[in-house]
Amino acid sequence: MKTIILTILVCVAMILSLTGCETNKNEFNVGSKSPIEIKEKGVTLSVKENTLTKKGATLILKNGSNVDVQYGDSYKIEIKKDGEWHEINVELNFNSPAYVLKSNKSEEIKIKWENDYGKLASGNYRIIKDIYVETADETFETFYVSAEFAI
Fold it and tell me: Fewer CB within a 10 Å sphere, N or C end of the chain?
């Protein structure tokens, strides 16, 4: 009798632990409507074909402008809710290197967002990168590019 009860308890524990292993719910907190306005200015961002997963993707940043631009490691992911883009409230920390992307060149950027955003559930998203271009007075103007994708 004790063996049967012990076997049942072990089976119940295994079933409960298995059901908690994978979740498809968005674990993040959807925030307010996004204030970011996308202005590509000759620079585009896209998701490389066959690289998108729930955990990350490879992006293609293409500079089709006639000036060199700079970008860093930082990015944001937003979710479309009720037809509008909304911020996802997570704490992000990035290194601050500056990479130069020459005029009429492109670069592949591998992004693994699982540690920051978790595995993304089904939905419509966009990933945003900030781009810097030097102005005539030797300051930098910032603008944003994005790539939309669906999980």
Answer: N
Longest Cα separation, the chain: 85
* Dist CA 110 CA 108 (whole Å): 7
Write down the pLDDT at residue 135.
87
> pTM for the whole thing?
0.77
pLDDT of res. 28: 66
Question: Would you call 66 helix, strand, or coil by DSSP?
Answer: coil
Rg (CA), the chain: 21
Let me know: does 30 contact 89? Beta carbons within 8 Å. Answer: yes
Taking CA atoms, 45 is separated from 30, 94, 106, 136, in Å, by 23, 19, 10, 25
Structure-model confidence comparison of residues 93 and 101, the more confident one:
101
Q: Which two tokens stand for residue 145?
A: 């590019």
Query: d(Cα 123, Cα 145) in Å, to the nearest integer?
Result: 20
Which among 65, 42, 45 has a CA at the least distance from the CA of 108? 45
Segment 41-81, tens digit of pLDDT: 899 999 999 999 999 999 999 999 999 999 999 999 999 99
